[in-house]
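How a chain folds remains the central question behind the approach discussed here. This step matters because it turns folding into a mapping between discrete strings. The sequence in question and its structure tokens are set out directly beneath this paragraph.
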Amino acid sequence: MLVNIQCLVQVCKRLNIDFRFIDNNHNVIQISTGNNLYYFANWTTPYNKESEAYIFQDKEFTYQLLKDKIRMPRTLGFLDPDIEEKRKEYLTASSCEKIVDEIQKNFGLPVIIKKNKGAGGLGVFKCNNKDECLIAVKHVFDKTSKDYDYVVLGQEYIPVVKEYRVVVFKNEIVFAYLKDVEGATFAGNLSPLHWEGSKAVLVEDTTSLESFNVFLKPVFSELPIGYAGFDIAEDSTGKLWLLEINSKPAFDFYVRDNGTDKLLLLYEKMLEDLREEKLI
């Protein structure tokens, strides 16, 4: 059973809310409150519409929707030149080499190249020269790989000093944590909590939490958030940048380093909300 589902079950029992497991692994739960049924499956919750969750998963769509509302790294998407015939009308570059030329023309070096629908730091590359760019693009478009994506992104490189995960429920921050790499060793994955010796550190000072709230408010006005984890970077000048939004964040690293108190609080807020039928 996933740690988040364990926490959900614990809160259901505490609040005397009826539930039952749907699957043999106990990672899909049906919640019964009032005359309504709700489902939590793996890391997903009832709080995001399918279309919104799809936008969050698609980093290019997220950028196009929010780039004029909040500070984000400039991003360009390119379709796989070897895409099936019916999608070729969307091609903007006819080869991997031409994609690299466009990326370098728009962003210079270093540059971030990543798959459009990746998670957990998979398929993300910091490239320092043209050869590395071409290798990264071809890696994303490798149809023999389980990590294949038909869209590759070129993205402005931001000199990140700190990276945070900010957990939001119904437009309010529930908790946030720093992805701390001080003293950690890079292990091939740019995502901070995949470094050896990294740790998740709960953000407790109200000044930082309020700065996150002010920074994210323009997103809430454009796209009301049911539930999401926001990855926010702080650069060397102290500016905040929105990197991506995750509609089904996992908490394994956080729980490893901090325990389950904040996760229990999150699910308590959700279940109390479902009791009052305030689902977005």
